[in-house]
Automatic annotation (TrEMBL):
Location within or outside the cell: Cytoplasm
EC category: hydrolase
CP-type G domain segment(s): 90-260
Protein name listed in UniProt: Small ribosomal subunit biogenesis GTPase RsgA
Length: 359
């Protein structure tokens, strides 16, 4: 294996030489879990932490490594290393951190292309598509639109979709595919190149996993657990989030990816549905959901045709998505906290009784 197979390129190498980083190992972060990183290097995979100095001087989340990063590190044990520096990223996929106002969460870095997948059936939504494309452009990731499940629609419907896209998003390549008939697979594979990094964006159920599995042609690393090292009390169990596709492309797939679409739901909704937002300020109730309330200005506007009924429906749907997303995040946080408590109790009991049980 060469570092280039993991996505290393001339820019990174130039930087490494300019900065005199020759004494370090170079590797790519393939997974992250609570400030522990799995890093792939020419010498194999290391579990790594950042230097105290890096942590001390970090001003924001962006100063910590993320999946996709190239880092300079020093190996200590056969499987443990310290990260000294993050090489400059050429692209960063991020979203506002939920519950931490003004903070951002990095989902992945150094991605060349994003396949933005929408199914041609019910899922197709030009506003949402536009939102994903905007995210790609602002992250410096090249988008490729993929219209999936074309086996479920006829050519008339497909052509209508393609026309809609051409009118609204004219400069992004579009590929129509089906995971059933494998239509469009040639086109997809011709875009995937050795040493380039890809990700899949799109709603749940549009066929992203099926596509990735078919492209890789084998069981993916995603489902594999990174070996746990328990020496010196270190312990890391996580899933690799960076996988090598059948034809040498690199795919980053992590839970954060699934949340990218929700990234700027608030601002997205505000720009797309500014009329609704503006009118809603005059609703009788402050917490009006604009679905059934008396004195709702939005419902009034839908009824008198001031607001398009379909766009109103889309607005409600996205609000629901957003509420669902927020409740999932809250639930996850609650669970993390609970597990944290258990671990703490367990440790306390170990100290007291020599075992983890409460007496
Ligand atoms: N008819 C048809 N069904 C498909 C196609 N691709 C995927 N499916 C089905 O759609 C469902 C969802 O597919 P997934 O690949 O799991 O979708 P996903 O986008 O990865 O969904 P998440 O994992 O939730 O993000 C599965 O039941 C697939 O069998 C397709 O091209 N045509
Ligand atoms: Zn209202």
């Amino acid at each position: 294996m060469k570092l280039e197979d993991l996505g290393y390129n001339r820019q990174f190498e130039t930087y490494r030489l300019e900065q005199g980083l020759e004494v370090f190992e170079i590797g790519r972060v393939v997974a992250e879990h609570k400030e522990r990183y799995a890093v792939n290097t020419l010498k194999g995979e290391f579990e790594a932490e950042i230097t105290g100095n890096m942590r001390f001087t970090a001003r924001s989340r962006e100063d910590f490594p993320a999946v996709g990063d190239w880092v300079a590190l020093t190996a200590y044990d056969p499987d443990f290393a310290i990260i000294h520096q993050i090489l400059p990223r050429f692209s960063v996929l991020k979203r506002p951190a939920v519950g931490h106002f003004g903070e951002i969460q990095i989902i992945a870095t150094n991605i060349d292309f994003a396949f933005v997948v929408q199914a041609g059936d019910r899922d197709f939504n030009i506003n949402r598509l536009e939102r994903y494309i905007t995210i790609c452009h602002s992250s410096n990731v090249h988008p490729v639109i993929v219209i999936g499940k074309t086996d479920l629609i006829d050519d008339v419907k497909l052509n209508e979709i393609l026309r809609t896209i051409k009118a609204r998003i004219p400069n992004v390549p579009v590929i129509s595919i089906s995971n059933e008939t494998r239509r469009g697979y040639d086109e997809i594979t011709s875009i995937i190149k050795n040493g380039k990094t890809y990700c899949m964006l799109g709603s749940s159920g549009v066929g992203k996993s099926t596509l990735v599995n078919n492209l890789s042609g084998k069981t993916l690393m995603k489902t594999e657990t990174i070996s746990e090292s328990t020496n010196k009390g270190r312990h890391m169990t996580t899933h690799r989030e960076l996988i090598i596709l059948g034809n040498g492309g690199i795919l980053i797939d992590n839970p954060g990816m699934r949340e990218v679409g929700m990234a700027d739901v608030e601002t997205g909704l505000e720009t797309t549905f500014d009329t609704i937002i503006r009118l809603s300020q005059n609703c009788r109730f402050k917490d009006c959901t604009h679905t059934c309330e008396a004195g709702c200005e939005v419902i009034r506007a839908v009824e008198n045709g001031e607001i398009d009924r379909a766009s109103y429906g889309n607005y409600l749907k996205m609000q629901k998505e957003k509420a669902h997303f927020e409740s999932t995040v809250a639930e996850r946080k609650r669970k993390d906290k609970m597990i944290g408590k258990w671990v703490k109790n367990y440790k306390k009991n170990v100290k007291k009784n020599g075992n983890g049980y409460t007496d």
